[in-house]
Amino acid sequence: MIYRKALLYEAPFFCTFAAMKKLYIETYGCQMNFADSEVVAAILKDQYTLTDDVHDADLILINTCSIRDKAEQRIHKRLRELEALKKKHRALQVGLLGCMAERMKEELFETEPILNFIAGPDAYRKLPELIAQSAAGETQFNVLLSEEETYDNIMPVRYDLNGVSAFVSIMRGCNNFCTYCVVPYTRGRERSRSPQTILHEVEQLLNDGYKEVTLLGQNVNSYQWEDKTFAKLMAAVAEMSPDLRVRFATSHPKDISDELLETIARYDNICKYIHLPVQSGSNEVLKRMNRVYTREYYLERVRKIKDLMPDCAISTDIIAGFCGETEEDHQQTLSIMREVGYEYAYMFKYSERSGTMSAKRFKDDIPDEVKTRRLEEIIALQGELSLISNKRDIGKTFRVLIEGVSKRSVDQLYGRNSQNKVIIFPKGDHKIGEYIEVTVNDCTAATLFA
Ligand code: SAH
Ligand code: SF4
Ligand code: F3S
Asked: pTM for the whole thing?
């Protein structure tokens, strides 16, 4: 399957390079973590070069995710696997970064003796010290959260070697406290990065030949710097070059303002794709989740999107089996999915996270087999909706930014259209990084063919 650039929950990503002391980074979780690993590579670039061979590394960094129990179990399993390497290579250092470091703190050293140090998401500038001190023998940790840190003056080391598309982190943290979610605890409070440093980073990317940027934040549309809203920032980025595509993730429905939608509609180079997680179609469940909107409000926003941009694709995140979810609530989730007709969805079973409001206030009372069945129904419905949406595209012509060679055949390339759909087409004499107009002639639920 072609890796979807926009979101990579729980998908590991391996990075590469070579020489002097060698660093291997493995990244789990969301794109924010992916972008952070690029910041970490930049902070350590004077001491380490990157390797894609874990056996070759002097330092292994695992950038972790805590969003669901499964994500954490996967990391514990990975650390088990790495123990053998450490036995062979005594000087090897292993550090754990990211959300698990923040959630579990020094408690992690008890269960994971392989670790030399741990660093939370706001402590990466301290990595050189943590590495040096832990090399001297004692385990080290820094999990302090900051109200200001945005790593704004650090130019990330990109390891997306196709050089076409880059993530630019524009805000960090979350103030929303959805009751099920660990992110406000692992990432701390919301803070935005100055527009000057964002525009400077985009300019560098343009100079390096990049053709697409994805502006990133846990709640990207609550970006605010003095009087600069997210809509104004995005307009400024879009105006830098008509050949630069602008994407963004993730939007909270509460902040999807008319100003923002009008800005997306106004600029051809702002992609017509909005990831707008709904989580549930039931007002009762939304209330217990503290999502602060209703089904009716959400549908009104979707109508506004479609009125302004009939060709805009919308995707979502859905949680199946949240505390107290009745069969009727579940039916409402299925019905809102049909009503919106999502192009794509990321779908999960509710996983209780200790310390969150839902863990304290509500009972995780939906049996696992019921969660599984509901999730399966949601996945099956989304399969139908994606196929319907893709079939509608047959015969249409799209502008595609070419991102790579298709895994199916070296004679085929792939790219995405504005709507974030992956399109595969014959190579001809086209090159990665070019724009091309293609007409869709076939599809599956996941891919368009042209
Ligand atoms: N900030 C983003 C999403 C961050 S987490 C937003 O609010 O949209 C990505 C997704 O993981 C969430 O949208 C939610 O669907 C899911 N998620 C978060 N906590 C979860 C939990 N405890 N159990 C299951 N899924 C969860
Ligand atoms: Fe988590 Fe909600 Fe914040 Fe998203 S908005 S990161 S789901 S608390
Ligand atoms: Fe996971 Fe942390 Fe992202 S919990 S989803 S890596 S913000």
From this structure: 0.94
